[in-house]
Amino acid sequence: MWTERDLNSRNKAMKMLENEHHYLRYLMEEWHPIVLDFENDRFEEKEDAVLAFQALRNKLKDFIEPWKKHTDKEEKYFFPALGMYIGKEQGPIVSIEEEHQEIDGYIGHFFHHSRGNIEEMSYQELKKVVQDAGEAFEVIMIHFVKEETVLFPMVDKVMKIDDLQQLTANLHSLITK
């Protein structure tokens, strides 16, 4: 577990990425309750399920742009910078990049299967498609923990100050609209 000293010594680059994680979690809190409603069969009427599904779709649309901006920054700047020190061909960076692809796959699958007239879909079909959003949520939550507890602390331990300053400059952009 982090001590207060550890948190205070975190570098600016990793604080930026961690702040983005907080923002993305906030956005996820907007759509994950809808996923849980489907998982727990809280809809008595199909109309309510369709409205909730449409809301979920809209909230996921709002999530995609900041998510992609965040992962693009990590893949373009953070992973290569850290990879110079710990390697890029195997290990935690490869695993984390694969998770980005897995998450994109779940979200893409959700949108692919919800692009038609959802009012024609049965409740069970809606529920099945919503599972992709639920899987994305689960993978993202674990993914953030891995980055924050494995990759981010490595930066303070291995990265030279000049490289860290360059990384900080490269990461200094907003993921919000």
Automatic annotation (TrEMBL):
InterPro entries: Hemerythrin-like
Span of domain Hemerythrin-like: 15-155
Pfam families: Hemerythrin
Highest taxon listed in the record's lineage: Bacteria
Protein name: Cation-binding protein
